[in-house]
C-alpha cells in the first residue's frame, strides 16, 4: 500500500516553538503513518519557474523570516537528503514533458516546522520540491498527477501551505476570527469530500471570499499538488481543522494514493 499524500497548513514560524493543537495533530499523524523511506515537500516558500528537486546530501535549514524570537533561529532539523531519488524524480518528470531540474536547496520553514512534529528524529531523507506561484491551481494539480506516476509507494508527499493566508488581517490583529476564515474552510472541505476538482481549481471565482482568504495564490497551491498526486477515487481525511492567530485555518488533510 502506498503512503498517502498530505496537505499541511504550516502556520506562522512561531509554530516551531509551540504549535498548540495543530502540533498535537502533526505528532499524532506522524506516529500513525508507516515510516517513509523518503519525504518530498512542496512548500509555499520555495518558488521557481520550473520544478526543482533539492538534491543536497544534507539540506541546510533556512530561517527565512525576520524579527522573531532568538530561540527560533537556534532551531535545526538535520535530516539527510536523497540526491539519487531527487534526480530520479526529476528525470521521471522530464520523460513526461516537464522541464524539471535538480539543485542545492535547503529546507524553508514551510518544510522544517511541520516536519519537526511529524518526524522529530530527523532521520528520514527529505527532498524539497519547488512550486511556481505564477502558474495557478491547474499547473500544480497537473504537477501532482505527474509526480504520482514516478513517486515510490514508500515516499511521502507533503504539500505545505495554509488553508487561509491573509497577512494583512494577521498583522491588524483584533478579536474574533473573521467569518470568511470558516466560510472558506467549510467550502474547501465540502468540495474535497465531493472530489469536485473543477470547482476547486476555480476556487478564486467560486469559493466564498476567496480573495480575502488568499490575496495571493501561493499558500493554497501546495494543496493542489497533494490532491493531484492522490487517487481520484480514494479517501480524504481531515486530521485537524482548527484556527490559529484568528486568520490561519490550520487544516491538515490526508489523501490516499493508488
Supply the key terms.
two-stranded parallel sheet; 11 helices; 37% helix; 18% strand; globular
Distance between the termini: 8 Å
Unreliable residue runs: none
Structural class: alpha/beta
Helical region count? 11
Compose a concise summary of this entry.
Helix content is 37%, strand content 18%. With 258 residues, the chain is of the alpha/beta class.
Report on this model:
This protein has eleven helices and ten strands. The protein has helices at 20-32, 70-73, 83-94, 109-118, 136-148, 167-172, 179-194, 197-201, 203-206, 210-213, 221-228; strands at residues 5-9, 38-47, 52-54, 101-103, 126-131, 155-161, 236-240, 243-244, 248-249, 252-255. The strands form three sheets. A six-stranded mixed β-sheet has the order 5-2-6-1-10-7, sandwiched between helices. A two-stranded parallel sheet has the order 3-4. Strands 8-9 form a two-stranded antiparallel ribbon.
Amino acid at each position: 500500500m502506498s503512503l498517502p499524500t498530505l496537505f499541511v497548513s504550516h502556520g506562522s514560524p512561531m509554530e516551531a516553538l509551540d504549535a498548540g493543537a495543530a502540533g498535537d495533530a502533526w505528532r499524532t499523524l506522524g506516529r500513525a503513518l508507516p515510516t517513509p523511506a523518503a519525504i518530498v515537500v512542496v512548500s509555499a516558500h520555495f518558488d521557481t519557474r520550473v520544478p526543482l528537486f533539492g538534491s543536497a546530501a544534507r539540506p541546510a535549514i533556512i530561517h527565512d523570516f525576520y524579527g522573531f524570537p532568538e530561540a527560533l533561529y537556534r532551531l535545526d532539523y538535520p535530516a539527510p537528503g536523497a540526491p539519487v531519488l531527487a534526480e530520479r524524480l526529476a528525470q521521471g518528470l522530464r520523460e513526461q514533458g516537464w522541464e524539471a531540474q535538480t539543485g542545492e536547496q535547503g529546507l524553508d520553514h514551510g518544510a522544517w516546522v511541520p516536519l519537526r512534529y511529524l518526524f522529530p528524529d530527523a532521520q528520514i531523507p527529505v527532498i524539497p520540491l519547488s512550486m511556481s506561484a505564477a502558474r495557478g491551481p491547474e499547473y500544480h494539480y497537473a504537477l501532482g498527477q505527474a509526480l504520482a506516476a514516478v513517486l515510490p509507494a514508500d515516499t511521502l508527499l507533503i504539500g505545505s501551505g495554509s488553508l487561509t493566508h491573509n497577512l494583512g488581517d494577521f498583522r491588524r490583529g483584533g478579536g474574533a476570527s473573521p467569518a470568511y476564515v470558516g466560510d472558506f474552510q467549510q467550502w474547501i472541505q465540502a468540495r474535497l469530500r465531493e472530489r469536485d476538482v473543477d470547482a476547486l481549481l476555480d476556487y478564486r471565482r467560486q469559493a466564498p471570499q476567496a480573495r480575502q482568504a488568499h490575496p495571493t495564490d501561493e499558500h493554497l497551491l501546495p494543496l493542489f499538488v497533494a490532491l493531484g498526486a492522490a487517487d481520484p477515487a480514494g479517501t480524504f481525511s481531515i486530521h485537524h481543522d482548527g484556527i490559529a492567530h484568528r486568520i490561519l485555518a490550520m487544516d491538515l488533510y490526508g489523501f490516499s494514493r493508488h
